[in-house]
Amino acid sequence: MIYHDSFAYDEVDTHQTTNTTTEQKSTANANVELDKVFMKSRDSFLKIAELILSLLVFLCITSDPWFSYVGGGWVQFNSLSCMITVLILWILLLFRAIYKLPGFWMLYILIHYAVYLVLYLISFLVCAIQAGKYRENGGLIASTVFCFIILIVLAIDTFFQVRRWQESGAKISVRTTTNSTETTHETEAEYFSVD
């Protein structure tokens, strides 16, 4: 099984001796290097599609400067912010740097996709309403179509992220604490479990 299918972004091993605590990532995810498996994965292709579609939405909406005053600024902001955040996420995953960062990355990614689903739904509605008013503007129609397509791609990516999270037992991260006399397993998913 590929590590992307197990979604092990936040596995942390903590070894505690009498006075010292060290956190180490699992050895499979410790190196920051180019991940050739991720490059060929469905996740990578979905993120590349999101990048390209966000760029197309931005270019189409920017083709008419007047539209910036009637909702185009919102669509421009949304497409650029989505493009930047997906690019950063894709680079972190591509070079496996996400495993070096602290935090609940599975939860962060799920929140990211949920937020951008709502933002692109609003952008799609803005573009569709304005395209209905100004039918001679091809940029509005094209941006409406691309907003709808990226909305579908984001929904597919969100579906796979949620499914992966559920398959992992809704774990966000696992922390193992080892004392000099006993071993305790503490799972942070208890605080964020899905019932």
Walk me through the topology:
Layout: H1 3-6, E1 11-16, E2 21-25, H2 36-39, H3 42-62, H4 72-94, H5 105-133, H6 138-167, E3 174-178, E4 183-187
Parallel strand pairs: 1-3
Antiparallel strand pairs: 1-2, 3-4
Helix pairs in contact: 3-4, 3-6, 4-5, 5-6
Describe the model.
The chain has a domain at 41-174. 57% of the residues lie in helices and 11% in strands. The chain has six helices and four strands; from the N terminus they run αββαααααββ. It has a four-stranded mixed sheet with strand order 2-1-3-4, with no helix packed on it. A hairpin with a 4-residue loop joins β1 (11-16) and β2 (21-25). The longest helix is centred in the last third of the chain and has 30 residues, at 138-167. It is elongated and about 50 Å long. Residues 1-29 and 173-195 have low confidence and may be disordered. This is MARVEL domain-containing protein. Keywords: Membrane, Transmembrane, Transmembrane helix. Residues 38-166 form the MARVEL domain. It comes from Mytilus coruscus.
Question: TL;DR?
Answer:
The chain is an alpha+beta fold and 195 residues long.
